[in-house]
Amino acid sequence: FAWDNYVAPSDSESHLPPIDLREANNIIAWASLRRVLHGPSFGPVIYYKVQIYGLISILVFFGSAIVQALGSYYVSLNGGGAFGFDVELASHFRLVSLALPLAAQVFLSYNINRLSHHHLKALGRAQSANWALAVEMQQSHPDKAAELSYSADLLGAVMAEIESQNDAAPMRVLFMEAQPAVVGLLGSAIVSVVILKIRGFTIDAD
User: Fold this and answer.
1) How far is CA 90 from the centre of its chain?
2) Contact 124, 1 (CB under 8 A)
3) What is the dihedral of CA 158, 162, 163, 169, to 10 degrees?
4) What would the DSSP string read from start to end of 167-181?
5) CA–CA separation, 20 vs 12, rounded Å?
6) Is 1 a residue whose pLDDT tops 50?
7) pLDDT tens, 144-194?
């Protein structure tokens, strides 16, 4: 019942400590730790501050880029010259410098969400093994069989809790669930702003 029963050929032992999931106390202890250490439950105040600050930053960056594009259009409309290359380059650099950390945050949060699936897989295997042992010991050791059945029921409750948490409170970036599609959304928005600034505004006159 080691938590991580895979051992690489070059390793003498697993790099994770074994957890005996036949014992009810171990299951309760692990579930209690997970409630305070996994995902948004770990430092919730800081987590939500990061979400708010990130949302404000992206609104400011995109807002400034759009204002600059509008300003460039009106300056050229009034016969003035366009903004210099240094101004345009700095504006593009700001968007890219904002996108890269956000993309890294999305993939990190996505991997944290994926950890729950590995937890469910390991707990499901342990639950099946506990039930199998309980059936095997039903005649010879009924007390031990009852303990194993209780542990299996606890594992089922923990799995249901993890699944509900995944649905209700997954890791988020900019208050959106951390998925690779969020990176595509941010990239599309940045490319749209850059194209807008490069091509400028055009108004067809009748």
Assistant:
1) 30
2) no
3) 150
4) HHS--EETTEE--HH
5) 20
6) no
7) 999 999 999 999 999 999 999 888 889 988 888 888 888 888 788 777 777
CB 178, CB 109: distance < 8 Å: yes
Closest CA to 3 of 14, 19, 25: 19
In this structure, the chain runs to a length of: 206
CB neighbour class for 25 (10 Å; exposed up to 12, middle 13-18, buried from 19) = exposed
Query: Which one, of 72, 66, 97, lies nearest residue 85 by Cα?
Result: 72
The predicted model scores a pTM of 0.70
d(CA 109, CA 86): 35
Query: Residue 172's beta-bridge partner residues?
Result: 177
- Token duo for residue 91: 């504006």
> Cα separation of 82 and 85, whole Å?
9
* Residue among 27, 50, 52 at smallest CA distance from 39: 50
Beta-bridge partners for 123 = none
For residue 121, count other CB atoms closer than 10 A to its CB: 11
